[in-house]
Amino acid sequence: MNLIRITACLFVLLWPATATSYTKKNSENDLLQQKKQKLFKGDVLVRLQKLQHKVIAVKGEIFIAALPEYVWQSLTDYEKLDEFVPHMLESRIIKNKGAETTVFQKARTGVLFFNKTSQITLKVTEEFCDKIFFEQLKGDFVVYKGNWQLDYDKSYGGIFLSFHADIKPDFFTPQFITRYIQKRDLKQSLQAIKLRAEKFNNNNISLQTQ
Questions:
Q1: What are the beta bridge partners of residue 119?
Q2: For residue 30, is it within any domain?
Q3: CA quadruple 14, 17, 21, 23: dihedral sign
Q4: Is residue 153 part of a domain?
Q5: Tens digit of each residue's pLDDT (9 = 90 or more) over 48-80
Q6: Higher pLDDT pick, 191 / 4
């Protein structure tokens, strides 16, 4: 009898915490589905956050109606990124060692009176069709590191692609200009990757149906 009472008391004590956790989880799932719906309908989400020491966290998300391999092909075609990614002047592989690649890139961007050509050498580490991690080895940034992540959702028939990076240029730029440029350029880059991956996907489907 005492054991039953103790069990009942424990259930009463733990139930509010369990209920709160369940409600929170449901709320998070609802928010995730709402975000996916926005992305599926064509929205491109870009968010910026100020971190310590003038570092800016940049995050972008987009939906791509393509199989993972075609999104992956678009992201990892390092020698051709300058052919379709806006503002990129040069992109080439310096060294390729399995899942780790060293990539040199040059880009020019700006707004109004401020224009800048920047160079960067990145260490890129791949987890096939899942994640790509990158970090500056040398270049025009104090901090430049982050990752790409591919989230395939069969129910939507495509990839939810996300980009995250912590960035701090090694040259003076007013913060409001840096934030504007990062937000604009990331949105344009995500749209360019979407266009290319969906083109690969559609071309492949056309070949299969011929």
A1: 106
A2: no
A3: positive
A4: yes
A5: 999 999 899 999 999 999 999 999 999 999 999
A6: 191
What's the CATH number where 190 sits? 3.30.530.20
End-to-end CA distance of the chain: 74
Q: Alpha-carbon torsion 96, 197, 140, 163, what sign?
A: negative
Q: Residue holding tokens 């991956």? A: 197
Yes or no: say if 50 and 56 are a contact pair by the CB < 8 Å rule.
yes
Phi/psi zone of residue 64: left (φ > 0), alpha (ψ -120 to 50 degrees), beta?
Answer: beta
Count the alpha carbons within 13 Å of 206 in the hemisphere toward its beta carbon. Answer: 6
31 falls within a domain:
no
The number of distinct structural domains making up the chain is 1
Range of the domain at 70: 36-209
Provide the whole-model pTM: 0.83
pLDDT for 90 equals: 97
Please indicate, yes or no, if residue 16 is contained in any of the structural domains: no
User: In angstroms, what CA-CA distances link 178 with 20, 51, 91, 167, 175?
Assistant: 40, 14, 22, 10, 5
CA 84, CA 14: separation in Å to the nearest integer?
Answer: 55
Using alpha carbons only, what angle is made at residue 106 by residues 104 and 108, rounded to the nearest 5 degrees?
A: 165
